[in-house]
Design goal:
Length: 205
């Protein structure tokens, strides 16, 4: 099964900082038991953004792919300008996946309500198929056949960012994986894809 990005954030040297205002993106080595990407808006002014992006080669990400994303949030809020967002451009569409405590959004449309949580690790899975997407939380289907935005620009760009408005926004990303949706078989039976458990458990509960 092909993987187009498998980022475990042992380093962020390949990710370019695009912080705005007071925002700071960094490699955190102390909050959890391993290394994670930390996005911290620092201030709560609405124009403070912590952001990192990686530019993959053009045509690297296919029209059909699966995203695995493990994230942890501190003090996400329900207001419009308090959020975590991931953008993936593949030269055909852009997946705009936003998380607020109100819910999860794809292309600006709320597709799941009240499942986004603070102070806990959550694993989101999205299957992108041409111009639609299915959303899962911890392997439970939350939304299906949701439209993604047509966009032929920025082919291969993957960007994560946090914005804080009513509160300082802080999010941690343990890993992001972009791979084939296809499920390989062995003797006619599906082989489940093992989600990396890794090492990002809280040091102090």
């Amino acid at each position: 099964m092909a993987e187009y990005l498998n980022e475990q954030f042992t380093t962020i040297d390949n990710w370019t900082a695009q912080d705005v205002g007071n925002g700071v993106s960094s490699l955190d080595t102390t909050t959890f038991s391993g290394k994670v990407l930390k996005l911290d808006s620092v201030a709560a002014a609405g124009n403070d953004e912590a952001s990192r992006f990686i530019q993959l080669s053009a045509n690297k990400i296919p029209e059909n792919y699966q995203l695995l994303l493990k994230v942890y949030h501190n003090d996400l809020r329900n207001t419009f300008q308090d959020f975590f967002e991931l953008n993936i451009f593949n030269g055909n569409v852009v997946l705009k996946f936003r998380l607020r405590t109100r819910g999860a959004y794809i292309s600006g449309v709320e597709v799941d309500t009240d499942d986004v949580a603070n102070d806990v690790w959550q694993i989101w899975k999205i299957n992108v198929k041409d111009d639609s997407a299915d959303l899962y939380l911890d392997d439970t289907l939350k939304a299906s056949d949701k439209s993604v935005t047509s966009d032929a620009t920025n082919d291969g760009l993957v960007k994560l960012f946090v914005v804080g408005d009513s509160a300082v926004g802080v999010s941690y990303t343990d890993y992001i994986i972009i791979k084939d949706i296809r499920t390989p078989t062995r003797l006619g039976f599906p082989i489940p894809y093992r989600i990396p458990e890794r090492r990002a458990s809280r040091l102090f509960e």
